[in-house]
């Protein structure tokens, strides 16, 4: 039997895609496979207190506290999430949930918190279930959490494990699955185990276009089919790159993926430009710096104006100076966040 009251907590990181997920089919099935670095410092910590409801009620309910205060604008997202997952976690309907969440990164920094937030919440729910189902292994717990997290926000299914997670069927990636993120199953060069990501906060405002609206732009998009094929091809190339540690090819592939994501946004109907003038200034500056120094720093982008700088740990001294002297002037209030590749979510 499930307990009358119990509290569980998880800390789950954000992730940054190298090959981007953009476009989806019904039930949060990705239109193409993707792969991401799991981050470490940028994370959401969530605890859920499950309180058993009166049998007559028999419908889940919840309250949501963000950084200690009730937050109404997140509630519709959570409601949609619970509506999608209830059939996989039938015990949910017998509980009232007190969800308490906080982010390690500054609020409204323009960093997407849906991946870390939804994965942390999914982990709490499956963890509670595992307290009853003694047969549940920790591997199964993580797999089910990834499955549920995907239903909250697609990319959230890639935040449970690390350092690299692949999501979506690909014929040359064993175990790849449209329903869950998998820990990348091939050997990777040591250099990628210590990769760094500095997030330059160019624009901390509200997103111009929601992910949902963005993904739907790929339906009937004139370049969609070629884009989906390209993602498959890029995962093939990346397999070799990750194994050999060929950073020159890594840089080319990662930057091209980022620009392709923005290119399809610019050529959709309606069309969007999500970069800001400072995004372009940063890109130009990175290209100049790379040419002058021969270092391997590159950029990637999400569906927004902020820039993720990716570079090997061994180059961090030079890059640190470059950021302080040059790139920080293109950031809002000079703000950026230093992060690195991590191992995934953890109970706390
Ligand atoms: O998880 P969603 O639906 O918010 O989509 C995120 C998509 C990108 O961040 C732009 C790319 C990716 O693969 O993470």
Automatic annotation (TrEMBL):
<dbReference type="InterPro" id="IPR036554">
    <property type="entry name" value="GHMP_kinase_C_sf"/>
</dbReference>
<dbReference type="InterPro" id="IPR053859">
    <property type="entry name" value="MVD-like_N"/>
</dbReference>
<dbReference type="Pfam" id="PF18376">
    <property type="entry name" value="MDD_C"/>
</dbReference>
<keyword id="KW-0443">Lipid metabolism</keyword>
<dbReference type="GO" id="GO:0005829">
    <property type="term" value="C:cytosol"/>
</dbReference>
<dbReference type="GO" id="GO:0019287">
    <property type="term" value="P:isopentenyl diphosphate biosynthetic process, mevalonate pathway"/>
</dbReference>
<dbReference type="InterPro" id="IPR041431">
    <property type="entry name" value="Mvd1_C"/>
</dbReference>
<dbReference type="InterPro" id="IPR014721">
    <property type="entry name" value="Ribsml_uS5_D2-typ_fold_subgr"/>
</dbReference>
<dbReference type="InterPro" id="IPR029765">
    <property type="entry name" value="Mev_diP_decarb"/>
</dbReference>
<keyword id="KW-0444">Lipid biosynthesis</keyword>
<comment type="similarity">
    <text>Belongs to the diphosphomevalonate decarboxylase family.</text>
</comment>
<keyword id="KW-0456">Lyase</keyword>
<protein>
    <recommendedName>
        <fullName>diphosphomevalonate decarboxylase</fullName>
        <ecNumber>4.1.1.33</ecNumber>
    </recommendedName>
</protein>
<dbReference type="GO" id="GO:0004163">
    <property type="term" value="F:diphosphomevalonate decarboxylase activity"/>
</dbReference>
<keyword id="KW-0547">Nucleotide-binding</keyword>
<keyword id="KW-0067">ATP-binding</keyword>
<dbReference type="GO" id="GO:0005524">
    <property type="term" value="F:ATP binding"/>
</dbReference>
<feature type="domain" description="Diphosphomevalonate decarboxylase-like N-terminal">
    <location>
        <begin position="13"/>
        <end position="172"/>
    </location>
</feature>
<feature type="domain" description="Mvd1 C-terminal">
    <location>
        <begin position="199"/>
        <end position="329"/>
    </location>
</feature>
<dbReference type="InterPro" id="IPR005935">
    <property type="entry name" value="Mev_decarb"/>
</dbReference>
<dbReference type="InterPro" id="IPR020568">
    <property type="entry name" value="Ribosomal_Su5_D2-typ_SF"/>
</dbReference>
<dbReference type="Pfam" id="PF22700">
    <property type="entry name" value="MVD-like_N"/>
</dbReference>
